[in-house]
Please model this.
Amino acid sequence: MKNAVWTKAGIPLVIVLVAIISAVVLIASKEPPPIEPAQTKAFLVDAKPVNREPVTFSVRSQGNVVPFHRTNLSAQVSGKVVDIADSYVVGGMFEKGEVLISLEPDDYLTEISLAEAQLAQAQAALSEEIARGQVAKTEWQSVNSGVPPELGLRKPQLAREQANVKAATARLDRAKRNLERTKIRAPYNGLVVSRNIDIGQFVAIGSALGTIYSTDIAEIRMPVGDSEMAFIDLADGIDTSDNVVLNARVNGASTQWTANLVRSEGVLDEASRVSYLVAQLADPYHRNSNSNQPVLRFGQFVEAEITASKQRDLFVLPRSVLRFDQTVLTVNSDNEIQIKPVEVARTDADHVFIADGLEEGEQIVLSAVPNPYNGMKVRLPGESTDTPGAISQDIADEKDAVSVEE
Model:
């Protein structure tokens, strides 16, 4: 009975003991796995080839609207103001040739009458002298056969009377001009900015009568920095097309007009160190058209966008590829990083425009590279590696790579 119990109890112990011994033997006889050196893969970057492309820039500026002609009216003759046109009020519109102010003409009518009388006397004296010269010539020929002297033919007296006729004619012409000057006429289509006279007022020669502006053409004087002037081609003349867009708020609404860039003032401002370009807009008050667009009033402040006529071939890249030291990262044929200094023509919020420092078709790194250096090995998306399992790792790296799209 006791042997049977010990037998049943010992069998499991024997099994466990055999298992332990077998495990020890197997572990002791197993060869260690080969140790492979760790492989460090090159950094994965996103890159693309770049080429020059034609670029036309827009230059932004601003300015105030001013008239092409502004005139301070003054009197050429003196006299009392007897009439003022209804349009000659501040803000009034007038037409070219319209009589704005009339001065008392009586004294000038009298001067014309006197000048006419003096001319008639001079002409009579001239006719008389011509007749005397004919008589003197006949008398000389009846007495002498030689050539008569000029004094004998009264030629000096004839020249004097001819001069008197010319002087009298000139005095009459001046008197007529002075009479015409009693009416001050508008030199162009325009509006009245200020008025300095009124009915009954006496004005002397040179007295200021008021200020008027021409409404035929408006000008906008726009400051442009020296760096921006490089994109505006002034050497071949100014383009006369609608190449300036003006923006302003009129009556609470944003309004746009198109103007023409007509000239540069040609001088660099000493204080601000900028150049000034001038744009023109015809008929800003719509006096000769039926446009539904609001008028562009003198004194209005506008923002201007100038479409530069000069086209340049530049490398256009995302703004983020330009490093703080004005360099970019490129990848050579050996998949090595090259740090290249570049000449930047212009930058904006999204792009950098590079004029020099790169080659056509060169690979530009678009992704962020920590601590790059010349000769740093990198991988490009889609390139295979020799390490097992690297393909799946490449896919994961490509998802994590920071790339910048234009």
